[in-house]
Automatic annotation (TrEMBL), chain A:
Top-level taxonomic group: Bacteria
Protein name: Amidase
Organism field: Streptomyces bungoensis
UniProtKB/TrEMBL annotation, chain B:
Lineage per the UniProt record: Bacteria, Bacillati, Actinomycetota, Actinomycetes, Kitasatosporales
PROSITE patterns xref list: AMIDASES
Protein name, as recorded: Amidase
Domain Amidase as annotated: residue spans: 24-444
InterPro entries: Amidase, Amidase_CS, Amidase_dom, AS_sf
Annotated Gene3D superfamilies: Amidase signature (AS) domain
GO MF, one annotated term: catalytic activity
Length: 69, 463
């Protein structure tokens, strides 16, 4: 098993740490899915982001009036 | 021709000129629903009495000279993620069994103000987190998937069970079922249509948009629904625009990007042939074809997943802890696994999105739009889990369906899917036109011109 893959037990610990205690019968399925997601998203580490900021929407001044329908 | 067969534009003209009443149209569509719904299961709920009452109100207003515009008296289905005051927004999930919306979503309120007649709520893949909508059957072959997640909306429009519908699109969920059911789906620019009161899958990727039978119909819906809503943080302030495309088919001067990479890789040959023929048709109408290189293709799926998965998990944080057993198995495990992603994963995806938007903006300076298949293959059989490509590559059905549509969710650029033919099994094929942000009118003009060159496609031979 590659060093980056989670065992079912590790997946359960990570989930508990995130505030989601998982019943024992969920550990293996969650570990497998989490590993698959990890294998997909890990390629983003190849990118050189330099000083590229994240694309997050944020407005300092909130508009408080009601929406016009 | 029966009233349920009319396009939105045709029905609107017939109502405006008093050749058709909203009551006749609504009764015709409700009768069609009674016939076809048992075979197609597009709807979560049909509110027939409410629809009849709204149709009578519309008829009375119009008779009194108060015609509100092209949606007045037109029957519409709403994906069941969209709040309507007093109704459940079930998200096609047991988690929402006791839900009751207190107020209208902004889009439902704008539809009501425009005089549209709400037929009911249409099925979604549970909480929009999937590409098949397993409860619903394809309108062309009931053994095939509807596509998703706005499967109910697309099937309803394709089968004459709604004159138009609204869907939502986070990775392709308007365009995928539209392509698989032979109707038109528009994912507008991110922020153009407000999402207040619409259940989220992933805030930074979610869009609301129309599913219709023609590009002109999509334009009519977009015109009625666009506009700033301060309660949606992403909502854009744009001037009121009439998106209805002008008549005529001359596309002289339009530069259409034809992808050299990505969009024709691992695509069914019949789909590729139909889309390339449609692109040639656009060329025959005067457009200039320009080969383009699609940027950062290696990072599209990673960016989509690393945005969507943690955002979806965050949205469901409470109910995943209190009622996890009420989720379907496929959705539950994705939500649970999303808890294990790191902030680093998410921020890399948001930074990748910045890069991808810049690269696409560069391409869209060289061309006015990009034309490509919406999905790489037509509707698969229900229960089929993978697609095997000619080189032996195996891909899950969900990955295949989302692959070509997700770039427009990441960049926020508009994408219009329209039917361009059928495969040898008679299943519809979709082409998407991707454009610059807020240039929906360019896509709708090209789509409308293309449609003028073909006979009207007609309704799906449902069930």
């Amino acid at each position: 098993m590659p060093a980056t893959e989670l065992t079912p037990r590790e997946a359960a610990r990570w989930a508990t740490r995130g505030g989601l205690p998982l019943p024992a019968d969920r550990h293996a399925a969650v570990a497998a899915t989490a590993d698959h997601i990890h294998s997909v998203v890990a390629v983003l580490r190849e990118l050189d982001f330099d000083d590229i900021p994240p694309a997050l929407a944020y407005r300092a001044a909130e508009e408080a009036h009601d929406a016009a329908v | 021709m029966q009233p349920y067969e009319l396009t939105l534009a045709e029905a609107a003209d017939a109502i405006r000129t008093r050749h058709l009443s909203p009551v006749e149209l609504t009764e015709s569509v409700l009768e069609r629903i009674a016939q076809k719904e048992p075979h197609l299961r597009a709807y979560v709920t049909v509110a027939a009495d409410r629809a009849r009452s709204a149709a009578r109100d519309a008829a009375r207003d119009i008779a009194a000279g108060h015609h509100r515009g092209p949606l007045h008296g037109i029957p519409v289905g709403l994906k069941d993620l969209i709040d309507v005051a007093g109704s459940a927004t079930t998200a096609s999930s047991l988690v929402r069994a006791d839900h009751r919306a207190r107020t209208d979503s902004t889009v439902a309120a704008r539809l009501a103000q425009a005089g549209a007649v709400l037929l009911g709520k249409t099925h979604t893949h549970e909480f929009a987190y999937g590409l098949t909508t397993p409860q619903t059957h394809n309108a062309w072959d009931t053994d095939r998937v509807a596509g998703g997640s706005s499967g109910g909306s697309a099937v309803a429009v394709a089968a004459g069970m709604a004159t138009f519908a609204l869907g939502t699109d986070t990775g392709g969920s308007i365009r995928v079922p539209s392509a698989l059911n032979g109707v038109v789906g528009l994912k507008p620019t991110y922020g153009l249509l407000p999402r207040t009161g619409v259940t989220s899958l992933s805030w930074s990727l979610d869009h609301v948009g129309p599913i219709t039978r023609t590009a002109e119909d999509a334009a009519l819906v977009l015109t009625a629904l666009a506009g700033h809503d301060p309660r949606d943080a992403a909502s854009l302030s744009v001037p009121a625009t009439d998106y209805r495309p002008r008549s005529g088919t001359d596309l002289a001067g339009l530069r259409i990007g034809v992808p050299r990479t990505y969009y024709f890789d691992h695509v069914d040959p019949e789909t590729e042939d139909a889309v390339r023929r449609a692109i040639e048709q656009l060329h025959d109408l005067g457009a200039r074809l320009v080969e383009v290189e699609i940027p950062m293709t290696r990072y599209i799926q990673a960016t989509q997943w690393a945005l969507m998965v943690p955002e979806a998990t965050a949205y469901h944080e409470n109910t995943l802890r209190t009622v996890p057993d009420l989720y379907q198995a496929d959705v539950r495990v994705l939500l649970e696994a999303g808890e294990l992603m790191t902030a680093g994963d998410y921020l890399r995806a948001q930074r990748s999105r910045t890069l991808m938007r810049r690269e696409w903006a560069r391409i869209l300076k060289e061309v006015d739009l990009v034309a490509a298949p919406t999905v790489p293959t037509t509707a698969v059989r229900a229960g089929q889990e993978t697609v095997t490509w000619a080189d032996g590559t195996v891909e899950t059905v969900s990955d295949a369906y989302v692959r070509l549509s997700s770039p427009a969710n990441i960049t926020g650029a508009p994408s219009l899917s329209l039917p361009v033919g059928h495969d040898s099994a008679g299943l519809p094929i979709g082409m998407q036109l991707l454009g610059r942000p807020l240039e929906e009118s360019v896509l709708l003009r090209a789509g409308h011109a293309y449609e003028q060159t073909r006979p009207a496609s007609g309704l799906a031979p449902a069930a």
